[in-house]
Structure formats: C-alpha cells, structure tokens
Amino acid sequence: MEETISLKELFDTLKKRIILILSITIAAALISGVVSYFVLTPVYQSSTQILVNQAKDNQEITKSDLDGNLQLINTYNVIIKSPAILDIVKEELNLNFSTSALNEKISIQSEQNSQVVKISVEDESAEQAALIANKTAEVFRSEIPDIMNIDNVSILASAEVAENQSPIKPNPLLNIAIALVVGLMAGVGLAFLLEYMDNTIKNEEDIEKTVGLPVLGLVANIEEGNEKAGVQKNQNTRRSNVGSNTEQA
C-alpha cells in the first residue's frame, strides 16, 4: 500500500518536535560561539608586493619585454616558496619551526596579466606574519640574480602591522551562522527520523494505516465510563437523600 504524507502531517511533526529542533539549533550555535571565541587561536595575515620588471635603463619597454616578465612570474611563484629562499628566511629570522611549516604559512598570488606578485603570510602573531612577509620579499630579491641571472625584482609595498588588527580567522559570526543552519537541519532531520521510527498506534488513523482496513466502531474508554457512572450514582444518591429528608419533615 502506497503511503503519502501531506503538508499538514509534516507541519504536525515539526510542531510536535519543535522543542527538540530548537534545542539542537541553539546548542549548535552556542558550541560554535564558545569554540570560535575561546578555543580557536586567532590567525593574522600580512602581505607585501613585489614588481617583476625587466626594463633596462634609458630604453623603451616593448610588448615582448612585458610578455617575458609575465612568463617569468609563474616561475618566480615557485622559487619564492622553494627551500632556496625559505631556508635563508628561516635562518635569518631564527624561526622555531621547519621550512615545510613556513611554506604552509606563505601564499603567492598574482593578478592575470599583471607584473605585481603578492606575498601573503598567515601566523598566530601579526608582528611575525609581517616580519616573515618582508623578509621573504627581501631574500627573494637578493637571491634571484644568482638563481636566474636576472635582476628585475623590486619591492612595491612592505607588510605592516595595523593598530588593533583583526584576525582573518576564525570568523565567529560566520561560524555561528553556519552552526545555526546545520543545527536546524540536524534537528529537523532527527525529528522526522524519530517520527518515522515511532511505530506505536495512537489513534484510529494509525490503525487504518497499519491494517489497511477502515474503522467501523470505537470502544469507549472504561475509565471514562466508570467516571460517568460514578457521577450518575452520586446524583441519584443525593436525590434519594433529599426525598427522604422531605418525607421525614
């Protein structure tokens, strides 16, 4: 027998489990907020920019020069994060983590058809992030002539630590919003799962669905019948007592 679920049944299920759904949603938001504000360590980002320019003194820059510089940028992006550069950065800054860990902190970004390369560093300390970014750019500029026999790199902007700089992650508000959505979805899903697994019979409609036969009649609740009989008996007793008192008078 094919079963169909109406919108009213869906609404009734949500209404019946509304406390469960709200509890899960609020709990998810609270946990996310506590973790974001008090557990996760803030991470800061600092960036510096370098310019790739192969123009020679007193000579006009041609299109071939620009195309050559743009082709070099992809190579430079790899060289910047290579041990040839990062080993020197680690040594000069006396960092207490490995070169591979330093590599993970650094990201390189270059705009399409642009000669500007952006070096970004993420670290738990805003000051150290700026220090690593600036040192990486300086070491790269000083080492690239020996590596590629080309001196065409200059630093456009150095990384600086802003006053009251905000971390880039975690983002507590975003995390809480995501937790609210996930908690709501989990609560609704759990509500429907509990409703699906509940195979108890509560009314005549459940009987019809279970046996596939219509209900022809209902048996009155015995306790309700006893209560009504008791009320009727008490009424008759009071009437008898009133009659007896009248005759005696």
Automatic annotation (TrEMBL):
Cellular localisation: Cell membrane
Pfam family, one: GNVR
Renumbered residue ranges of the record's region Disordered: 229-249
Mode of membrane association: Multi-pass membrane protein
Polysaccharide chain length determinant N-terminal domain segment(s): 3-93
Sequence ranges of Polar residues compositional bias: 232-249
Keyword Cell division: no
Stretches assigned to coiled coil: none
InterPro entries given in the database record: Bact_polysacc_biosynth/exp (IPR050445), GNVR (IPR032807), LPS_length_determ_N (IPR003856)
Transmembrane segment boundaries: 18-40, 173-194
Keywords: Cell membrane, Membrane, Transmembrane, Transmembrane helix
Domain Tyrosine-protein kinase G-rich residues, every copy: 148-193
Family classification: Belongs to the CpsC/CapA family.
The name this protein goes by in its record: Capsular biosynthesis protein
UniProt organism field: Cytobacillus stercorigallinarum
